[in-house]
Design brief:
Largest sheet: none
Helix content: over 70%
Shape: elongated
Strand content: under 5%
Oligomer: single chain
Number of strands: 0
Length: 54
């Protein structure tokens, strides 16, 4: 089954949303567990977020 462009974009968007939510969830979980994120980990998180958005 081939997806038309709109369906394809929607599918890509769903994947993006899932990945982004997982990233945020894992970050909040780490924060909740009082894990002190060092500068490098925070930088990696921000970089990943930036890459996912753009």
């Amino acid at each position: 089954m081939t997806l038309n462009p709109i369906q394809h974009a929607q599918k890509q968007n769903d994947v993006f949303t899932i990945q982004y939510n997982q990233l945020i969830f894992s970050y909040l979980l780490a924060y909740k567990n009082k894990i002190k994120l060092n500068v490098r980990e925070t930088f990696i998180f921000l970089t990943q977020t930036f890459v996912l958005i753009f």
